[in-house]
Specification:
Blueprint: E1 3-9, E2 13-19, E3 25-32, E4 44-45, H1 47-61, E5 66-73, E6 79-81, E7 91-92, H2 100-110, H3 112-119, H4 128-138, H5 140-144, E8 148-150, H6 152-161, E9 165-167, H7 168-171, E10 177-178, E11 183-184, H8 186-192, E12 201-203, E13 208-211, E14 217-219, E15 222-223, H9 224-231, E16 240-245, E17 249-255, E18 267-270, E19 277-283, H10 287-297, H11 303-311, E20 321-323, E21 341-343, H12 351-375, E22 382-386, H13 393-403, E23 407-410, H14 415-427, H15 434-441, E24 444-448, H16 452-473
Parallel strand pairs: 1-5, 5-15, 9-12, 16-22, 22-23
Antiparallel strand pairs: 1-2, 2-3, 4-7, 6-8, 10-11, 13-14, 16-17, 17-19, 18-19, 20-21, 23-24
C-alpha cells in the first residue's frame, strides 16, 4: 500500500509515522537521543544525532512504497554549518536560556515595538537570532566559520535531499522573519548585521523542498506546533484551538490575518496553511512539571498510580497551589528567571495532593494563555488536545473545567508527526490541499465536557493562582 511518511525531530527523539491516504496509521517508530546541559540554563544537542535517529526510525517503519515525506521538529534551535556542510558546534536548543544579554541588545538596537511589528515577537531567550548573536559574541572563531544556518528539522532535510530550505512556520520562530509578509526581514537582518546568504529558502509548508535519492518528494514541513495543530485538525481560523500537554504546554489558535500581542507574551507566526497565521503561547514546563515531580518524590512510580492518588483530592486540594515555572517561563510571563513554587502546604497534604496541585497549576497556566488569545480575537468552541498529558482522563477533566471549554482527543496521538505526514501527502499530490488532507484523515475520538461544579471551584482558584507570579516575583 502507498504510504505517506511524517518525521518529527523532537527534543528527545525522532518520531516517525506512516499513514495511508485515508489517514489510517500503517506504522509507527521512534529513535531517541540524549540532551546535553553543559551549564545551568544551557541546552545543546549534536545535530548528527537527529539524522542518525531519522534514518533508524524511518527504516523501522518498514514501508517501501512511499509517496511523500513531511518534516516537523523542535523550533528555534540554531544549527550552524561550515562551507563543507559540516556541523560547526552542538546546536543551541529552544529551551536554552543563555542569551539574555543578546535579547536586550536586539530590543535596544531595533526597538521592542518595531521588533514585534516586524517579526510578531519580542526577543525571547529561546529564539534563534539571540543564539546567533551569542555565538558571534562568545565564540567568534566558530561564528566566522558559518556558511549556513538552519533549524533542527532542516538538517534532516539537508541530509535527505541536499537542499538548504526551511518553511515559513519554523522561520517565524527565528526573530529574523517578517511574519506578516512571510519572508526574511531585510530590516532585521540589516539592524543585526546578519548576512542574508546564510539563511535557507523559506517555503510554504506543503511546497516540495527537494527529493530523496529515490525521487520521493519532501515537503517543506512545519515547526512542531504548526504541524501538531494541523495534525489535530486546526487547519485555519475557526472554532477550534490546539492545546498541547507535552513537556511544554501550548495553546495555539489560527487567524485569517497577521496579528501580534503588543506586549510580546504570545508568539505570532505563519501557519502551515498558505494565507493563514497563528498565535500561540508556550509554557515551558507542562507535562515536564509532572515528570519533575515524579523524578523528585516518586521515582519509578507509574504515572497512572500518581494520577489515581491525585483523584482522591477535591478541586483545589485544600488551598494547595503550584506555579509551574521550573525552567523560567515564556507565556504568559516572558521571564527566564521565573521559578516554580508550591504554596499553601499543610500537614494533611500527601503525594497525591502534590500531584493534584501540579495538574491544576499547569491547567491554570494554560488558562492564562487562552485568555490572551481571546483578547486578540481567537474565540474557540472546542480545544483539540494532544501530547502525553492528554492521555490522562483526570488531567483533561481538570483542564476542561479550568478553561471552561470542551476538549476533544483525536484518533491519532502523534500530532506533529501526523501533521507532517499530511503535508507530505499534499506535496506528493495525494491531497489537493491542507484542508482536504485534514478532512480525509483527522477524526475526533471523544469529548471531555467541563464539569459545572468544577468550573465554579476552579474559577475561584484561578484568581488566587494569577496573584502568585507577581507576589513571588517581588520576593526575588
Amino acid at each position: 500500500m502507498t504510504a505517506i511518511v511524517g518525521l518529527d525531530v523532537g527534543t528527545t527523539a525522532v518520531k516517525a509515522i506512516a499513514i495511508a491516504p485515508d489517514g489510517t496509521v500503517l506504522a509507527r517508530a521512534e529513535a531517541g537521543y540524549p540532551l546535553s546541559m553543559p551549564r545551568p540554563g544551557w541546552a545543546e544537542q549534536d545535530p548528527e544525532l537527529w539524522w542518525d535517529a531519522a534514518q533508524h526510525a524511518q527504516a523501522q517503519l518498514g514501508v517501501t512504497d512511499v509517496a511523500g515525506i513531511g518534516l516537523s521538529g523542535q523550533m528555534h534551535g540554531l544549527v550552524a554549518l561550515d562551507d563543507t556542510g559540516r556541523v560547526i558546534r552542538p546546536a543551541l536548543l529552544w529551551n536554552d536560556q543563555r542569551t539574555a544579554a543578546q535579547c536586550a541588545a536586539i530590543e535596544e538596537r531595533i526597538g521592542r515595538e518595531r521588533l514585534i511589528a516586524l517579526t510578531g515577537n519580542g526577543a525571547l531567550t529561546g529564539f534563534t537570532a539571540p543564539k546567533l548573536l551569542w555565538l558571534r559574541d562568545e565564540e567568534p572563531e566558530a561564528y566566522a566559520r558559518i556558511a549556513r544556518i538552519m533549524l533542527p528539522k532542516d538538517l534532516v532535510r539537508l541530509r535527505l535531499t541536499g537542499e538548504h530550505a526551511t518553511d515559513v512556520t519554523d522561520a517565524s520562530g527565528t526573530l529574523l522573519f517578517d511574519v506578516a509578509e512571510r519572508a526574511w526581514s531585510d530590516a532585521v537582518l540589516a539592524a543585526l548585521d546578519v548576512p542574508a546568504g546564510i539563511l535557507p529558502a523559506a517555503l510554504e509548508s506543503a511546497a516540495v523542498s527537494g527529493h530523496t535519492a529515490d525521487g520521493v518528494p519532501v515537503a517543506a514541513g512545519a515547526g512542531d506546533q504548526a504541524a501538531g495543530a494541523l495534525g489535530v485538525g486546526v487547519v485555519g481560523a475557526g472554532s477550534a484551538v490546539s492545546i498541547v500537554l507535552g513537556t511544554s504546554g501550548v495553546v495555539f489558535g489560527a487567524l485569517p490575518a497577521f496579528a501580534a500581542d503588543e506586549h510580546g507574551r504570545l508568539q505570532a507566526a505563519c501557519h502551515a496553511v498558505p494565507g493563514t497565521w497563528h498565535l500561540m503561547g508556550v509554557m515551558l514546563s507542562a507535562a515536564g512539571s509532572l515528570q519533575w515531580l515524579r523524578d523528585t518524590v516518586a521515582a519509578g512510580v507509574p504515572f497512572d498510580v500518581l494520577v489515581a492518588e491525585a483523584a482522591a483530592w477535591e478541586p483545589g486540594a485544600e488551598g494547595l497551589l503550584f506555579q509551574p515555572y521550573l525552567a523560567g517561563e515564556r507565556a504568559p510571563h516572558p521571564d527566564p528567571d521565573a521559578r516554580g513554587a508550591f504554596t499553601g502546604l499543610a500537614l494533611r497534604h500527601d503525594r497525591g495532593a502534590l500531584v493534584r496541585a501540579v495538574l491544576e497549576g499547569v491547567a491554570h497556566g494554560l488558562r492564562e494563555i487562552l485568555d490572551l488569545l481571546r483578547d486578540l480575537g481567537v474565540h474557540p468552541e472546542v480545544g483539540r488536545v494532544s501530547g502525553g498529558g492528554a492521555r490522562s482522563d483526570l488531567w483533561l477533566e481538570i483542564l476542561a473545567a479550568v478553561l471552561d471549554l470542551p476538549l476533544e482527543r483525536t484518533a491519532v496521538e502523534e500530532g506533529a508527526a501526523y501533521g507532517a505526514a499530511l503535508l507530505g501527502g499534499v506535496a506528493a499530490g495525494v491531497f489537493p490541499d491542507e484542508q482536504a488532507a485534514v478532512a480525509a484523515c483527522v477524526r475526533p475520538a471523544g469529548v471531555v465536557a467541563p464539569r459545572a461544579d468544577w468550573v465554579a471551584a476552579y474559577a475561584e482558584q484561578h484568581e488566587r493562582y494569577t496573584a502568585l507570579y507577581p507576589s513571588l516575583r517581588a520576593l526575588r
